[in-house]
Design a protein that fits this description.
single chain, 428 residues, alpha/beta, Lyase, Ornithine Decarboxylase, Chain A, domain 1, TIM Barrel, 2 domains, 8-stranded parallel beta barrel, 29% helix, binds ligand LLP
């Protein structure tokens, strides 16, 4: 569940980010020092938090054959992909761009699954040519196009059909994907026929079944229903003679944006494994958010303070919906905390924290309890490691901001700030 930001909540910080006497730190490194050196806005990621999240998920599924394919759409900065690859992760790509970025980060084609509604013929040809572990096919038409491009290349393609089970993920409607009103996959009841029909197509190796019902899922019930539907279908297909090698449960495990406990990786595994055990096939997981969200913060500087009659106070930041669109797009709640140390005993005030973009949806948080703010103060927007930097834009000709990775007590810029020349280089 995404929490709408209308309530005053005490803003605590996740483990890697601690408020200390030297201000907010990332795995012990003061964030103010990074902001001094790099400027703001800037994304700061904690390598330690990514490692811990990966280990938690891997451990939760340790008793069952599984592969973790990190969903690049949540964050595909090369340094983070390399970190995840070294941990043993594989990758889930949603476009030819993501496939190529994954390869540049060192993933081999056998470590990639290729998902996505509306893959072009060129994208399919690229994936078939490279020999990815599975193309998660979206429709009967796409199965035909995969077969055609494979035939032209003289290859066989490994395919998993994405099924739509008509299950409500009980998440935000904009990120729910498993219901009949959504554009994703094929109706699950059509799947057996589609598999049977394709068994005679030599260019298609129907190696898997794929499901993904949505993102930021925080209750077990939809997860269990999805795993059950997936497993039941796999059992039926095996009985039909389909030589399945895996089932793919997609991503979707939610994180806590408000600091309250949510479904853990262990709860998730415990909930879905009984269903998966019935089919006995290795499971592919496609987590994005749960591996990287809590590992990143967006650091910004207050550039203006405004007060309105009636007492509404605005802190205007140098970051906005162009850097982090989730609050504007989904009404998503992100905790906001000061970067500098706060004098003990300082009374909080009520602030609206907004961006500089000419859109009234450009609001990071309303009615937030924060210490008195002045121009030049810095704030950190928490849990911004997933669907943050990747969804940034050049709207208002704003430059994509840099990204910094903190690891082993040091830090490095892993993506520099964009320049105007970078953008204008594309224009004639
Ligand atoms: N697999 C498939 C097929 C997906 O469509 C997605 C996410 C994932 C895996 C990864 O899901 P995760 O584990 O991250 O929940 N921009 C939105 C989220 C969109 C998710 C799209 N699909 C947000 O900021 O909340």
């Amino acid at each position: 569940m995404i929490i709408f930001d209308s309530t005053l909540l005490p803003e605590s910080v996740p483990e890697s980010f601690l408020q200390t006497s030297s201000g907010l730190t990332c795995d012990g490194v003061p964030i103010a020092g990074i902001a001094d050196a790099v400027g703001t806005p800037v994304y700061v990621y904690a390598a330690g938090a990514i490692r811990q999240a990966y280990q938690r998920l891997d451990t939760a599924f340790a008793g069952y054959p599984h592969r973790i394919h990190f969903a690049l759409k949540s964050n595909s900065t090369l340094a983070l992909l390399r970190l995840l690859r070294e941990l043993g992760s594989c990758a889930d790509a949603n476009s030819v761009g993501e496939l190529q970025v994954a390869e540049r980060a060192g993933f081999t084609p056998e470590q990639l699954v290729f998902t996505g509604v509306g893959k072009t013929r060129e994208e399919l040809a690229y994936a078939v040519g490279r020999g990815v572990a599975a193309i998660n096919a979206e429709s009967p038409g796409e199965l035909d196009r995969i077969a055609e491009v494979a035939r032209a290349l003289g290859k066989a393609a490994k395919v998993a059909l994405r099924v739509n089970p008509d299950i409500d993920a009980k998440s935000h409607p904009k990120i729910s994907t498993g219901m009949k009103v959504n554009k994703f996959g094929v109706p699950i009841e059509d799947a057996p026929q589609l598999y049977r029909e394709r068994l005679g197509t030599p260019e298609l190796q129907m190696v898997g079944v794929h499901i993904h019902i949505g993102s930021q899922i925080t209750s077990v019930e939809p997860m269990v229903r999805a795993a059950t539907a997936l497993s039941d279908l796999a059992i039926a297909l095996k009985a039909d003679g389909v030589p399945l090698e895996h089932v793919d449960l997609g991503g979707g495990l939610g994180v806590s944006y408000d600091g309250q406990p949510v479904l853990s990786e262990a709860d998730y595994a415990e909930a879905v494994l009984p269903a998966l055990r019935r089919c006995g096939l290795p499971v592919v997981l496609e987590p994005g958010r749960s591996l990287v969200a809590a590992a990143g913060v967006l650091v910004a500087t207050v550039v203006d303070i405004k007060t309105f009659p009636g007492g509404r106070r605005f802190a205007v930041l140098d970051a906005g919906m162009t850097e982090l669109i989730r609050p504007a797009m989904y009404g998503a709640f992100h905790r906001i905390v000061p970067v500098a140390a706060v004098e003990p005993g300082t009374a909080d005030e009520t602030w609206d924290v907004v961006g500089p973009i000419c859109e009234s949806s450009d609001v990071f948080g309303r009615d937030r309890a924060l210490p008195p703010l002045r121009v030049g103060d810095r704030l950190a927007i928490l849990d911004a490691g997933a669907y943050g930097a990747v969804m940034a834009s050049n709207y208002n000709r704003r430059l994509l901001c840099p990204e910094v990775l903190v690891d082993a007590g040091g830090w490095a810029i892993i993506r520099r700030r964009q320049t105007l020349d970078d953008i204008l280089a594309l224009e004639v």
